[in-house]
Please model this.
Amino acid sequence: MKYQVDFFEHGSKYTTDKTFSSFSLSERIAAGISAGANTQGKVTPNEDGLSIVTFDDTIKLYMVADAHFGCEASKIALQRFPELLSSATLLEEALVPAAQELNTIICDERDDESETTFLAVLQQLDKTHYLSVGDSLLYRFSDGKSSHAKARYSLNCYLGERSILPQSAYCQGLLESHDGFALLTDGFDSSHLGEEALDDVFHHSLLQQGIDRIMKRLIDEGENPGNKPDNGAIVVVRT
Model:
């Protein structure tokens, strides 16, 4: 199955502490990513990344990945997963096998000791499927409110952690009826940005401006008293 990469962004290219970039990809799709240098005492760039891919002009694949101990694992995950899916006839049935093969590829190809969380949402005409390894966050929007899609509650495993992960590390499911969804790396959780902040993003008249607001709250304690600044990547989709 043919595919094209619509958008790819990785935090390792950003080096200025506590800054972010946001992107309006259409009226209904927006994304954001922060620089991570020295955030929460970290001295490496942001190891998060995100990507959006289209299969056969109609099927969308949205991905976020959050590496640690280096950047290579999240880069490899975002770049290679669409390629692994593309050989399948039914993409939704290939999500877990492709992720298992991806884990092996990361272990074999990375140039550092990095591991990564990985969250993918496959949006087809009538159904939306997800695949998650690790603790990235998936929310669905319905009737004006966001709710956690439970995609993070697999075992606390990471792609690249070891050559073979238990089957239970791969959390797959069907996103129920929704008006949209959001993929976030776990910095948004550790920074105490709850569902109310996410609802503000989704309902903002200009989606990118909503992304700007939540990114400022993520990286700047002054924007959110009690916040513990962190790095992060986010994709928000209105359907």
In short: The chain has one domain: 3-238. The mean pLDDT is 88. The chain has five helices and twelve strands.
